């Protein structure tokens, strides 16, 4: 199963902190007709579930409901938070070991415990910190009940806008997007770059191919 790791040492050009307001950041998005043709003709809905600790629930809720979904609007994708699972004491699965192992355990927990209770398309969690790894997700699994999952890490001094780019990046992987090829250009700050012609074309093909299956 293909996964992508985001690290400080190699991924900063893909996950840049927002230096402008959301309106400023997105005013250039899809200005040309060539870019607009990659948008879906109808809005696609992605149902998101979040696993989180009690201490950061409020901040995460703000990110999920108000900030990062803005990244997907130009692609005519609506990301909806349908379930927020909060644990006061500990995670319901082990968070020890490599991030890939933790991601696997989270995906297993989602499949066995969360999916029977809540219908969803993607599940993401914040289980802990793993060195310089900011996030990890299975690629192209949005239609999979077993592996449509990702984990996101944020330090105590990270801003909400910065964390929103991490979540958007990892969900982009779930939606079938890989990191942009060299030479791929996007307007404003790049997030893998989710709004470049390259990434938008990949997403458009992915959803048109799998849309009837989800």
TrEMBL record:
Has the keyword Zinc-finger been applied to this entry?
no
Residues annotated for Zn(2+) binding in this entry: 169, 173, 179
Superkingdom in the source lineage = Eukaryota
Tell me the keywords, alphabetical order.
Disulfide bond, Metal-binding, Zinc
List the InterPro entries.
MetalloPept_cat_dom_sf, Peptidase_M12B, Reprolysin_adamalysin
Task: Specify the signal sequence span.
Answer: none
Q: Which CDD domains match?
A: ZnMc_adamalysin_II_like (cd04269)
One Pfam family matching this protein: Reprolysin
Q: Where is the Peptidase M12B domain?
A: 52-214
Catalytic-site annotation from UniProt? 170
MF term (GO), any: metal ion binding
Keyword Disulfide bond attached? yes
The record's Gene Ontology biological-process terms are: proteolysis
How is this protein annotated for GO cellular component? plasma membrane
The protein in question is named Peptidase M12B domain-containing protein
């Amino acid at each position: 199963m293909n996964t992508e790791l985001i690290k400080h040492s190699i991924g900063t050009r893909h996950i840049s902190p927002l230096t402008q307001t959301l309106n400023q950041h997105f005013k250039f998005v899809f200005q040309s007709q060539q870019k607009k043709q990659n948008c879906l003709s109808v809005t696609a809905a992605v149902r998101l579930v979040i696993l989180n600790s009690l201490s950061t629930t409020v901040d995460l809720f703000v990110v999920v409901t108000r900030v990062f979904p803005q990244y997907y609007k130009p692609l005519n994708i609506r990301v909806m938070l349908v379930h927020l699972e909060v644990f006061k004491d500990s995670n319901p699965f082990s968070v020890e070991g490599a991030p890939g192992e933790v991601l696997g355990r989270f995906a297993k927990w989602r499949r066995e415990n969360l999916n029977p209770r809540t219908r969803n398309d993607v599940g993401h969690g914040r289980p802990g910190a793993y060195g310089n790894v900011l996030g990890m997700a299975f690629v192209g699994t949005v239609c999979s009940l077993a592996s449509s999952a990702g984990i996101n890490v944020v330090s105590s001094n990270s801003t909400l806008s910065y964390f929103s780019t991490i979540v958007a990046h990892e969900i982009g992987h779930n939606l079938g997007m890989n990191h942009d090829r060299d030479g791929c250009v996007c307007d404003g700050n790049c997030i893998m770059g989710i709004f470049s012609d390259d990434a938008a074309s990949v997403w458009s093909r992915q959803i048109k191919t799998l849309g009837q299956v989800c």
